[in-house]
Design brief:
By secondary structure, the chain is mainly alpha-helical. About 75% of the residues lie in helices and about 0% in strands. It is rod-shaped and about 105 Å long. It is a single-pass type II membrane protein.
């Protein structure tokens, strides 16, 4: 009887070990996948920051304003203060 109990206990422990082992492998795989996603998002973020810096350059905005919106740079201007009663 003790021999059968010992065999059952060993089988249960072996099954538990196998379950834990495969769960660990699955988690490691998932962690690797998440690490890759993080790296891809960091790369995309760097690219978007570079695009933002390019698009918001004052020289670029001024050129677009002149070419597409036909705006001109003010030469001289005056400020007139009006008082309202």
């Amino acid at each position: 009887m003790k021999g059968k109990m010992l065999i059952v206990l060993i089988i249960v422990l072996l099954l538990a070990y196998i379950l834990i082992f495969y769960s660990t492998l699955h988690l490691k795989s998932h962690i690797t996948e998440l690490d890759n996603q993080i790296e891809n998002l960091r790369r995309e973020n760097r690219e978007l920051e570079q695009t933002y810096l390019t698009l918001t350059r004052p020289e670029r905005i001024e050129a677009i304003a002149k070419k597409k919106l036909h705006l001109v740079e003010a030469k001289d201007f005056y400020v007139v203060e009006l008082k309202y009663k």
